[in-house]
């Protein structure tokens, strides 16, 4: 095989170029902290990193969804806490209203108190979040869910509770409808005597009690007074059933808040594991990178020296 001066020059030049390329590659790893900066550095690790980054993005999205869900559930629980207090206040008024020694003025005063409680609960039922969306309207959040006159309050919100995916295999209700809260009773509710129909609408219960208490008792016969007492007793049973229903929903909300905390912990642990996996795939091994950088730097300097020495030589000189 014939060796020319040009061939020797090209071989030495390739050696310098290759050494310089490797030296720069290790330098880039050290400057970026990444072993894999492009797919050609490690095709298998790069493809696994793409899949892992998608999993990280999904985990971050679920973390954001849990933050939103926690805010919604906490807000609803807070409002229902106020509803609970209001219903309990109404129960106290109803118990006092059963006192047979009350005058018509006393009864009218109680009716005014109950009307105020009823209006308070109505305002709570039409509560909005920080963005002006009604929290008890299901998915129809743009309009107040409850409206109507005394004794005829109706629900106009959505029929489907608001749900949210909070993890890969978990979807939970984060917004109950007004019907579930203010127009429902539990399966173990106190029944009406003689298989009568139980009142489920909280507002109609209170409106009925207000109307009854504003009805004068003076001049009524025993049957008329008994009817008024029966109406108050029905409201008392209705309020107990309604309170139990609200407390059942609040218990559900408390369980969900606890579950969201646990899912957050799981998500954080998952994020740490994914970050470690990503580091193992693409991050630089500093000991190896520094060692390789120094070694490649020495190799590059040797290539420079060999190339420099070669420039002063030719085949004519070697044949002397």
TrEMBL record:
Q: What are the GO BP annotations of this UniProt entry?
A: bacterial-type flagellum-dependent cell motility
A single Gene Ontology MF term assigned here is: structural molecule activity
Quick check: keyword ATP-binding in the entry?
no
Q: Which gene encodes it?
A: flgL
Return the Gene3D superfamilies for the record: f41 fragment of flagellin, N-terminal domain
Among InterPro entries, the record links this protein to: Flagell_FlgL, Flagellin, Flagellin_N
Q: What is this protein called?
A: FlgL family flagellar hook-associated protein
Secreted in keyword set: yes
The family database entries (Pfam families) matched by this protein are listed as: Flagellin_N
| Residue ranges of every copy of the Flagellin N-terminal domain listed in the record | 3-141
Instruction: State the organism of origin.
Output: Buttiauxella agrestis ATCC 33320
Protein origin, superkingdom: Bacteria
Q: Name one GO cellular component term.
A: extracellular region
């Amino acid at each position: 095989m014939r060796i020319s001066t040009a061939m020797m020059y090209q071989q030495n030049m390739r050696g310098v170029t290759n050494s310089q390329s490797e030296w720069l590659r290790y330098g880039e790893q050290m400057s970026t902290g990444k072993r894999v900066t492009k797919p050609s550095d490690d095709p298998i690790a790069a493809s696994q990193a793409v899949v892992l980054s998608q999993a990280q993005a999904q985990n971050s999205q679920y973390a954001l969804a849990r933050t939103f869900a926690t805010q919604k559930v906490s807000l609803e629980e807070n409002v229902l806490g106020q509803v609970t207090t209001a219903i309990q206040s109404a129960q106290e008024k109803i118990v006092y209203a059963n006192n047979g020694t009350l005058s018509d003025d006393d009864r009218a005063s109680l009716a005014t108190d109950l009307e105020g409680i009823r209006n308070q609960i109505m305002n709570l039922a039409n509560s909005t979040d920080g963005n002006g969306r009604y929290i008890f309207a299901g998915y129809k959040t743009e309009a107040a869910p409850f409206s109507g006159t005394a004794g005829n309050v109706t629900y106009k919100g959505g029929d489907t509770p608001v749900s949210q995916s909070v993890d890969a295999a978990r979807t939970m209700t984060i917004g109950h409808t007004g019907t579930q809260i203010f127009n429902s009773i539990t399966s173990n509710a106190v029944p009406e005597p003689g298989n009568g129909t139980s009142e489920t609408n909280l507002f109609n219960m209170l409106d009925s009690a207000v109307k009854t208490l504003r009805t004068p008792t003076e001049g009524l016969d025993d049957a008329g007074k008994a009817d008024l007492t029966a109406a108050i007793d029905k409201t008392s049973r209705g309020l107990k059933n309604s309170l139990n229903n609200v407390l059942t929903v609040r218990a559900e909300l408390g369980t969900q808040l606890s579950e969201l905390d646990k899912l957050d912990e799981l998500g954080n642990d998952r994020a740490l594991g994914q970050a470690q996996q990503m580091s193992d795939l693409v991050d630089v091994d500093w000991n190896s990178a520094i060692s390789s950088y120094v070694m490649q730097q020495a190799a590059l300097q040797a290539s420079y020296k060999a190339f420099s020495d070669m420039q002063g030589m030719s085949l004519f000189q070697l044949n002397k």
